Fold these 2 entries.
Entry 1:
Amino acid sequence: MATEAVGSAGIAVGGSAAASRWRRRRALNVWGWRVFLTLVGLMLFGPLVILVLFSFNDSNILTFPLEGFTTKWYSEALTDPVLRTALANSFQVAFVVAPLCLVLGTLAAFGLTRFRFRGRGVIGGLVGAPLVLPWLIIGIAALMGYARADIDLSLKTVVATQTVCTFPLVTAIVAAQLFRFQKVQEEAAIDLGCSRLQVLRHIILPHIGPALAAAGIFAFAWSFNNYEISAFTLGFQQTFPVWVYSNVRNPDHTAIVNAISALISAAQVVLIWFALKLMRLRSGDQATTEMIAGTEAVAATART
Amino acid sequence: MAALQESLGIGVDDKAGRGRRGPRRPGGARGAFGILFAPVTLLIVLFLVPFLIMVQMSVVRFPPRVDSGYTLDHYVEVLTNPLNPHIAWTTFTIATTAMIVMLLVALPLAYFMVFKARKWELFLLLALVLADELAPVVKVYAWQVILGRNGIMNWLIPGPPVEWLLYSSFAVILTLSTTYITYTTIPIYAAMKAIEPATFEAATDLGAGWWQQARKILIPLAAPGIFVAMILVYIPMLTDFVTSDIVGGTGSYMMGQRVRDLILGQGDWGAGSALNFLLLAMSVLLSLGAYRLARLNRIES
């Protein structure tokens, strides 16, 4: 705003030559940003667009330009028995992990935000640790832990380790939301004669509901997409990321990998966008930006 | 960032908190115990104990047999094996190059989001998060499609196919940069959010050019965010093995791959857990550094 004011002042003083120079620089500026943002967009989403394009390509070889249009890779992918089992395993794991994480994560968020006690910092650090330490390191430790305890690796061990590494994400999202609305509101409701349950139903849930839904979707996505922990804590079964991993250098499966990756990514784009909108719906733009800036910064390093 | 740390209970000064959050509840500890019992117990059993077992494995003579006597041989082996410094150096150069690329993108991107984007600010932020939440394995695989011998890049570039685009350090650096750009951008964005836009207006009025403004205002004021971003992104990059497995070549063999191969490939639990422990120690030190920086930043503001 002020820059524009300075600019127009410049026009008034400097005459038309300065004005056109200023306008040219401004146009250059705008175009510079546009080019930059397009490049960033290509970096982030270009690969996925290409993946979708190739999944409709009528050839099993990754050659550009594309040859013809086909949907046969999708039907082949969805009828491949090994892939179907892997997908089913991933869904099974994520459908167990996400609700578990919601319960544990919310409990931890309440404990850490609504109470003050000795050792709170230590427990906060313990809850935050799985978000900061790389999954490779955690996966190896888990593998050794299970071996030492004589527990056979299976989908159950995947669920167990994924749950303890993912619920802190829910804690981070829910705690950020709990922190925003003051405990005073709960206490006021109690003073006005609300029961504990009524407080939960009428005060707390409406406040953290959207954050919970969003956190649930994120936890589901984390679990479904996780490769590192699954790779170390999985028995003979495969999950979807593990299947993709073992097929990326297999030329016979290129087209199927493309098709199923495109399909899963598209579904996730829709789901995650919906989760983000949910966060925004209740919290408002300002709160959402703050929440993401806070949560993501710490959630940052969990993925290796 | 600060709000999250506060809400997670990291580094919150009780005295400072008391004024704002009301008096300490007498029954606080008991209520907290009931609520935190399940999550904390699970974290101890499934997260903390495995790490202790891993440390034990790294000092046992013939892991996983714990009755075979204790030794520090595995650490000596890891530190003296000539292969390891070489791999560490490769990992460090790849991670550092990727970091430079990401900073070159993240700094202008964060600046744009905070000061120029206006109604697009939230959209850009959400797009960054969205890009990050998609399956990492699939995202890395997509680069294989682009950079391959017959891929789009080679179709766009005239002449014979460029071989070093894929299965090379170049591919690993490019893919790592796109994987972690969200985490690099967001702490920087959060730090820039705290800068008063009027500062730049004042600088413009006083005749400072964009370079001077960037060097004398933007970067110094965003420095804590930049350092936090660097540390938080270095930690996972130094242990990344997915990227290098899928798009890397023999010249880009990284530390994460080394640890994975020691444990799953060669079954050498002694050296594997020793190396893993060293990586863990490094990660913990780096994250404590990031935490201190973030806290310092909070006290200053």
Note: Chain B is about 75% helix and 5% strand.
Entry 2:
Amino acid sequence: MSHFGTYEERAKDFTWTQSETEIYEGVRSRNIGYLCSDRICERGLGQKVALYWEGFTGQKKVFTYDDIRVYSNVFAKYLEEIGVQVGERVCIFMDRIPELYISFLGILKRGAIAQPLFSAFGEEALFTRLDDAKTRAIFTTRKHLNKVRRIKAQLPDLTKIIVVDNEGKPLEKNELSFEMEHRPKVENYDSHQVNTETPSVLHYTSGTTGKPKGALHVHGSIVAQYITAKWVLDLHPDDIYWCNADPGWVTGTSYGIIGPWSNGITQAVLDAGFGVDKWYAFLQDYKITVWYSAPTAIRLLMKDGVEKVNKYNMPCLRHLCSVGEPLNAEAVLWSEKAFRRPFLDTYWQTETGCIVITNFPGMKVKPGSMGKPFPGITAAIVDPKTFEPITKPGTVGLIALKPGWPSMIRTYWNNQTTYEGKFKNGWYICGDRSSIDADGYFWFVGRDDDVINTAGHLVGPFEIESALLEHPAVAESAAVGKPDPINMEVVKAFVALKSGFEPSDDLELEIMNFIRKKLSPLAMPQEIEFVKALPKTRSGKIMRRLLRAQEWGEEIGDVSTLEND
Amino acid sequence: MTEEEIKKLIVDYVIREYLDDDTTEVKPDTKLISSGIVDSFSMVSLKTFLEKKFAVKIPDDKATPQAFDSVNNIISLLREFGINPT
């Protein structure tokens, strides 16, 4: 029996107070770090496993709730000792090792703001985000230390570079060695007292123009993350849960840390790249019951067919969800064959902090649909010009949400104007297009801007184009999303070369690697088309939408402002 | 090229382009994709490198994470396209 019951029952009289009561009853603090560790121990679950961890070499570790309580205390106390102040930003820049998950709670206990960043980010992507946040400290590993070293001279606020696996190797100025399991245990630590509006997590997200924006969340977000994890992911006390997402992105924190641990659930983490056999073996060996994955991963698994699934024994698997990009109907139907249950699509964004439109356990699934709004979320499709709700079923408009749910961001860091620009006519505009059918199900259509959604991650074209211009051969460039059967979109770059440079395979590879190292593998163009010049408006602005339309086989639309050759 | 020369060429490329630390050792049987040294997006640049270096076209359905998961696997893949070490 799912926690959710029927949609009608839940939606009828839902208030967030229900969740507040469950999460805050009898607590000593409203700090997320405390709520996800000490609170669970206080409820008698200290010896329950919080984390099964397996590395890519097969190395295994197990942490109970009492372990993560004590180790997160160790992190918090250490930050206090080295002078990190309440409200300062502390970045987590490492692969999915236990220290990532536990330091997240420790940073919050200290009262600092956790700033997790995807460890595959290159130095320029890292610099942009650390510089904007004026980050005080960073937790990293030897594997990623060189990237930090190359930019630290330009980051005067970054005075604590903490290496969690240094093992006695030489360190430079402002670098510190901190090995969690070798530090003295800290049995008791008073988490910094917060209220629901105290800043907690800063996640960076990309837009069409300008630099990535820091989406600032607050400790009160847990009210939404707790109940959505419980109802949508249908987490029960005996579940073993696996979330594929990296905590460098919001899914990895909202539902890879806060959601499961605030529910006292055992989760398993695999710190390894994608591999069909590796993943199925992980599901089998850890007896995973609830799996939160992504369409790109599901489509990769589909390539190896149901036969491959049948080689593994996964009788415990009972609930599957997906996030990051629209889940196509074929993937839903395939999972019904392969796992005897559908993947349920969930929709949300960095800015929403929690699942807002979704398919629910027990609700009829319409394959390819996003589902319905979570109870407590008022969602509509609005007209792109008037921002008035559209009531006619099947009409495409912009997805809009009534502000006020607990996990919504409170601002963009240093960018309140852009934040305010997201609200129109009393609605928060998500930036995605969709329609609603006669039964109230939402159907995703696409983005309403030039942001590229590749494998569920948003990549801003401006950031790629800026980086491309730093390559000595590039005169001008445009980056667009092109359709891809696995990743939904991948980055394609159009590049005009400076005089003296000629297109070649060597140059294409050089530019690919240049972007990968500067920004990230996600931002690396999977294809580069060398052109003589880029289409521009008469005012000189590159017409990215024209290039995008060309890639998608869409009508080019109004080109009256196109510059004449 | 001998098999050893091909292996060295690929290993050197992986170290130069995908590794940024001096603590990870790459051998012909080191896991590349499942270890996260080369992620699935970066496989495209590794594929482009191989195609350029060995003048072959590797179809997308052959460029799987398994086929790229070690230098030894890549050598086997190249053999399918007639690249046989001397």
Note: Chain A has 18 helices and 27 strands.
